[in-house]
Structure formats: C-alpha cells, structure tokens
Design brief:
The chain is α+β, with helices and mostly antiparallel strands. The protein has two domains: 11-38 and 64-101 and 123-280 and 397-404 and 423-458, no CATH class; 282-394 and 471-585, 4-Layer Sandwich (Glutamine Phosphoribosylpyrophosphate, subunit 1, domain 1). The protein has 20 helices and 18 strands. The chain has helices at residues 11-21, 25-36, 38-41, 64-75, 80-94, 158-169, 174-187, 193-209, 231-243, 246-249, 251-263, 270-275, 302-313, 318-321, 326-346, 357-361, 363-371, 493-505, 511-516, 538-546, and strands spanning 58-61, 104-110, 116-121, 189-190, 227-228, 279-281, 284-288, 291-295, 397-403, 409-415, 473-477, 480-485, 520-521, 529-532, 551-554, 561-565, 571-575, 582-585. The strands form four sheets. The protein has a seven-stranded antiparallel beta sheet, covered by helices on one side. Strands 7-8-11-12-16-17 form a six-stranded antiparallel beta sheet. A hairpin with a 5-residue loop joins strand 16 (561-565) and strand 17 (571-575). Helix 4 (64-75) packs antiparallel against helix 5, helix 5 packs antiparallel against helix 6 and helix 5 runs parallel beside helix 7. The longest helix has 21 residues, at 326-346. The protein is globular and about 60 Å long. The model is unreliable at 1-50 and 383-393 (pLDDT under 50). 6-diazenyl-5-OXO-L-norleucine binds at residues 394-397, 415, 417, 436, 439, 468-470, 488-490, 493.
Length: 586
Amino acid sequence: MGKNEIRLIPASAIRLNLCKHVYGIAAVMSLSVFLFSSAARAQEPSMNVKKENFHNGMVVCATPDAAKVGLDILKKGGNAVDAAVAVQFALAVTLPEAGNIGGGGFMVYRSAHGESNTLDFREKAPARASQNMYLDSAGNVVPNMSIATHKASGVPGSVDGMVEAYNKYGKLKWADLVQPAIDLAHNGFKITEKLASDLNRSRAQFVKLNPGKSYLLKDGDWKEGDVLVQEDLAQTLMLIRDKKREGFYGGMVADLLVSEMKNGAGLISKADLQNYHSVWRKAIYGNYKGYKIITMPPPSSGGIALLQLLQSVEKYPLHRWGYNRDSTVQLVVEAERRVYADRSKYLGDPDFYKVPVDSLLNPAYIDARMKSFDWNAATPSTSIQPGKFVGYESDQTTHYSIVDKEGNAVAITTTLNDSFGSKIFVGGAGFLLNDEMDDFSAKPGVPNMFGLVGGKANSIQPGKRMLSCMTPTIIEKNGKLFMVVGTPGGSTIITSVFQTILNVIEFDQDMQQAVNSKRFHHQWLPDVVYEEKDALSDSTETKLKQKGYKIVERGPSGRVDAILINKAGYLEGGADPRGDDTKLGW
Ligand code: DON
C-alpha cells in the first residue's frame, strides 16, 4: 500500500460489527438512533477514518477485492478504462450476484479533456426469440419463464464491451487487466458475510437449476471468511485474457454455452454469439442549474428519465424546502409518476423503435406534464395493472465509478438482472447466465419482476435490446468533472441516482452523506411511494398521507457508488453502506 493510501473499511463491515457487539434494548435503541436519525444520516459510515485528500485517482465499487484490483491498475499507470476493465472482471469473480461475464451493461465515459462517449454492451434477444415467447396458449405470461430458465438469457455483452472499451481507450496490456480476476478465481478470496448469506439464500435454486453441477456450493452453509475458489471461471477468464473477444464468443466457451442452451431448451446459438457487438452511442446531455449532466441514451431509459426528472423539479426551491421535507417528497414523487408513465410507452431499443428523445426532453412538454399536479392531493396513477414489487434486499446489478490521475472518468453499471441472474451456470465454463429477457415487456401492461410495465416499444424481437433502468452518469460543473454516479436497484435505479444528485446539489451533502441518505421511490405503477426505513419523518408521512399518498416501507434501495470532485479539487468517494461497497483512493 502506498504511503498516501488509506484502505477505507466497507461501511457494511462497520454496521455488522456494531450489530454483533450491541446487546440490550437501550443499546439497540441507540444503534437505531445512530443509524436512522437525520443527524446520523449526515455522518460518514466510516467516521473514524480520516478524510484523505486523494487526487491521483479513485475506485468505488461493490467489493473490497475488486476495488483493490482497480486501484492497483491506476497506480501502475493505467487509466480509468484500464481500471474499469480490471474491475469488471474482478467483480465477475467476487460479486457473483451481479458482477459478470454472462450479462451486460452500459458505460459512460468522459475524458480529462471533456469529450464524452457511451458504450452500450447490453444483452440482445437471441435470433430465435419472439414476441410472444413467454405466453401460454391462452395468451397469459408463464410465471418465471423469463427469469429462471435457459430461455431467460439474452446474448451476453460484457466481454465484448470490455474489449471494445479497451481497444478504444485502454493503455496497459490487456492480459494485465484480466489477470487479477484470474488470480482471484484460481486462488480464491475470502467471502464477506453478505456474500455468504446471498449464496446460502440461493443454494436451493442453484441445486434445482443446475443438476450435476456444484458451482458456488459447499457442504453446509457458507460463512464469512470462507475462501471461494472458482476454477472453471478462472479457465474461462484465461481464454478471455489470451484471445480477448474470441475467448468468449468463440472456441470452447462458445461451445459450452451453446451446449448448455441445448440441454435446457435455451435459444442462444453460435451465430448469436458471433454476431454480438456492443455499440458506441452518443451520450445524452442535460442541464440542471448550470451543471451539465452526461448520461446514457436508450436502450437505457435511465438517462432520459433522469433528465426529465431533473427538469421537472428544476424551478422549485428544493434547497429551501430541504432534504426529504414534505414539499420536496411530493414534488419528486409527482415528477417520478409522470416520468415512469412515459417510460412504459415511449422507451425501447432505438435500433428497433424510434424513441422520441427530443419530445420527451422538450422543456415545454415537461412543463405541461408538471402543470397537472395538485399540491393539495396526490394525482392517482392511471391503473393498467398493479405492479408487483420485489420486497427483499436486492442487489443484482452493480455500479462502479472510477477517476484516474489525468481526470478521465468512467461510470459503468452492469448486470445479470436478478440476483445471480437466471441462477443457471454454463457447465464447464463456470459463469452465470443473465435473465435479462425479463426486462422486455412480455405482454403489454403485464409488469415484470420490478413491477414495470411496457408495450410495443419494449416488445421482444430477435436481436433487440431490452429496455433498462441503468443510469451511469457523469456531471460537469463549469466545464470540469464534478461527479461520477450510478447504482443497481432495478426500477429504483433512476430515482436513486436522481436523489443522490439532488442531495449534493440542492442539500449540500458531501458524497458519502449523499449516498448514505435514505431514499424513497415512486414508479407510476403501482401507485405507491416506497420508502427505506425512516426515509421520511413522521410529520412528512402524515402530511403526505393526508393528501392521499400511499406509503410503504421497503428494504434498502440501491447501492450507489459515486465520486465527487469537491470544492478543494480532491476526489471524494461515496461507497454505499447498504452493501460491501468500498472506496479506495490515492
Ligand atoms: O437493466 C435493468 O434495468 C435491470 N436489469 C437492472 C436490474 C437491477 O438493477 C437489479 N438490482 N437490484
């Protein structure tokens, strides 16, 4: 470790330690006060760690081991894209729930000179996919078919995405970026308490869906500190190290993937793999009170929705109202309701469906949408079908933010969709397949696993990319890098990124506070305001309920990992205490 480097303890470790050592009601009460009072909310989770003036680079991502891999690459002279490639592969090993080579994602990039670009490495529907593939003969959606079957997987994009990003911007040797992940898979790494419990929770499904395979299984339960070795995954990563794209989309790995598909009546063919290519897309931009927002265009809905949300609230005095006060919450909820309604109708893969980007972002349109809300009463959402919302703590996607010494910045959100994707491994190759096909609209108006509804724009077609909420975003202030931000969280991704930005720009929170702060969420359907425990004060809740808002408590929302360039010009990280997320700078 360099002299200047401080290993920041993952916030969850602190939380868990506190939990272990706290006994008795009084102590539990004081713990809750510590965790949930608004004063405590404003504290860094790792309060005993001195803030350092990092200026050479920073990595904030979901696991301590992957953060270390990224930082090492930066210290070796790698740039932000080099570090991102290394982190992506390291997460595929150390965060099997979401880090992946069998999934896809999006990258937003901004060079130190201010040029920006985005890479779409989202999965695609296989050529044999079809619009009604998840419907039974009566035309009803077959439960779980787009989630936990071989047919749930889109053609993976992550490896091609990393190769593309590297070919365009990478500096160090490709092999040196993949090797740390190989080492982690081959030598094993110590698992956290959270990963142990995630693995134990999914054990029954791993067994059921993978007869004859023993990936991520052990005799008895996993415990914190157990060493997880993934030898087949190491072999696959070696092929990627040696043959880049061809190591995954051709040769042995492609053979194994296609034979896995055949065993489980899946659709991905060799031609699908060979034909998969990620796409460079022009970033979409917006302005919020002088800050320039650089974000992901479709097939993510995230960027457009974020820009719509920011525009919808821009002219209101949020700063004066304050963080999570009733007027703030009401305004934000009403903006979210309208934006998610648009999402369900107008957003889809732009290669297949003309997304009316300009109309959706037109200030006059946004104004007109916001005119219809009434301060005295909640606007009821037009009901199509009430959505179902996943209540358990979900962290099936992952986001990482990186800034290098020159000031190049990368925001990547990547996913298998559900926790551990389809929970189906490619036999012999040791990696998990995504269940991203569930992000398509299987049938107009029928909600997906996140309660999101859609229609024609997001219907299934061969070769089409499913709509996403992922919102990797970079913000500039006065032409200079200001923030790098993103999160997992399914449908809550957009609203979590939105609130994190407001927390910094409107409510003067530092990066860690902004990430820690409790969040709430509305997505049009179901017509419910979801709040993390104690996100809203009793008086705010009472006032909102009087106006007709239905408020429901849910588990932790998102895992925001972000970097801010603070007023002094130093890098300030925000690693989400809701997970094992870690920030490392130097
Ligand atoms: O692309 C999307 O919007 C979803 N597949 C993301 C899934 C996700 O964030 C799950 N994690 N909580």
